[in-house]
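Input (structure):
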């Protein structure tokens, strides 16, 4: 009975250890969404864009203070001491005694801008737009990081798939060398067949080694894209190709025009230019403000806070300023040329927006067509791959019965490797195009 309990306990411990090992291994596998999360947390560009949003938020709050009045308080105390002397009055000299005088004053003043030609309102609008632009640039920075990580991630998968192709090719070449060597030992083929087979196997070995180097390089590139040490360990899941499904052209264009961060930023630039134009025009408009001040004075500090019915004065009024001639405006520009400049900037911003719309529509259309083309290419390459596999099989059979040369076999093997390479490239190119289409449509961050 005790042996059974001990055996059960050992099995439980082994199960727990294996379960933890599998769990740890599963956690070490770097899925694409995890790689993107790591990059968004680490990349400096995203952090900078977020800090700029914080600055824009502070500037927005600061701009609203322009609506508040200005309030100031003052206090002054002064002692004047005069020595003995004399003075003249109507030609008569009078002696003066030494004297000390004191006077004190305090006051409070309030001023309020009532109308400044719309400058305050427009300044606040610019601050609001600054925050919106900061948000758009933050999303744009995240999109750039996601696209870069996706591309680097796919590069690692592609080089790994190609490494598998070269490894299988090398195994096939080495098997071919053994087969030819056996036939040579039997006297069925010439020594040149063995040498050619060995040469091809050597070249395939070189290709595999070079591909392994490229694989390691793409892993380092992915680490850098994620903001990690280049030598950090990377384990990617097995690649299961799923053909991208391109959206309908009109739907994709509509989505892009609504979501594109590029268009959003350019549209906000138009609003900025329009507000800047209004601010330039405000130089021709009057300013209206109000003010109020209350003051107390006396010959001793006590006079300032006792008997409030005495020793006081106040001033209240409004001030209207009408510009008749303004020699200079912001940046040393005169008002009329400044307005012309702002009008030109607005026109440029509008044209940039219109041009960007056309470019995005064209880009979306091109990317959709590329997806459709790659879908056809992949299907054709699959057929080519099947044909290449059959050609190699037939070439080997013909070679074994003396109806084909070793060059026929080696050429068939090279054609098979080439077909496998083309298929791998086509699959990953399609994946990259899909990510670019999502970026153009502004849906890359929705994944």
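Output (sequence):
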């Amino acid at each position: 009975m005790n042996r059974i309990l001990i055996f059960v306990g050992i099995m439980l411990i082994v199960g727990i250890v294996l379960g933890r090992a599998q769990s740890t291994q599963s956690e070490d596998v770097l899925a694409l969404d995890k790689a993107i999360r790591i990059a968004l947390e680490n990349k400096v560009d995203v952090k900078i864009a977020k800090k700029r949003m914080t600055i824009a938020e502070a500037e927005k709050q600061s701009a609203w203070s322009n609506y508040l009045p200005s309030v100031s308080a003052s206090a002054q105390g002064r002692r004047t001491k005069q020595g003995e002397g004399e003075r003249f009055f109507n030609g008569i000299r009078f002696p003066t005694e030494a004297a000390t005088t004191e006077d004190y004053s305090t006051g409070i003043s309030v001023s309020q801008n009532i109308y400044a030609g719309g400058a305050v309102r427009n300044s606040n609008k610019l601050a609001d737009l600054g925050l919106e632009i900061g948000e758009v640039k933050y999303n744009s920075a995240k999109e750039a990081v996601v696209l870069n990580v996706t591309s680097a991630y796919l590069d690692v998968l592609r080089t790994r798939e190609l490494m598998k192709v070269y490894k299988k090719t090398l195994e096939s070449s080495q098997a071919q060398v053994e087969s030819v060597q056996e036939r040579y030992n039997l006297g069925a083929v010439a020594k040149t067949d063995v040498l050619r087979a060995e040469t091809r196997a050597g070249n395939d070995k070189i290709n595999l080694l070079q591909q392994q180097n490229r694989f390691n390089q793409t892993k380092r590139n992915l680490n850098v894209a994620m903001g990690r040490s280049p030598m950090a360990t990377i384990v990617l899941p097995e690649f299961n190709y799923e053909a991208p499904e391109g959206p309908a052209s009109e739907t994709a264009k509509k989505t892009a025009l609504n979501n594109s961060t590029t268009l959003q930023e350019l549209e906000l630039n138009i609003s900025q230019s329009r507000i800047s134009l209004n601010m330039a025009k405000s130089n021709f408009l009057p300013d209206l403000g109000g003010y109020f001040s209350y003051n107390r004075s006396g010959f001793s500090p006590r006079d300032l806070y006792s008997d409030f019915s005495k020793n006081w004065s106040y001033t209240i009024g409004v001030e209207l300023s009408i510009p008749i001639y303004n020699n200079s405006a912001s940046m040393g520009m005169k008002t009329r040329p400044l307005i012309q400049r702002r009008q030109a900037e607005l026109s440029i911003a509008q044209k940039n927006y219109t041009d960007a719309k056309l470019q995005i529509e064209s880009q979306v259309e091109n990317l959709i067509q590329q997806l459709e083309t790659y879908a056809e290419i992949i299907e054709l390459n699959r057929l080519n791959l099947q044909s290449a596999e059959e050609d190699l099989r037939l070439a080997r059979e013909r070679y074994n019965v003396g109806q084909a040369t070793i060059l026929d076999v080696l050429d068939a093997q090279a054609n098979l490797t080439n077909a496998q390479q083309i298929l791998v490239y086509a699959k990953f190119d399609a994946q990259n195009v899909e990510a670019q289409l999502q970026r153009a449509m502004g849906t890359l961050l929705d994944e």
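Notes: The first helix runs from residue 2 to 28. The first strand starts at residue 70 and ends at 82.
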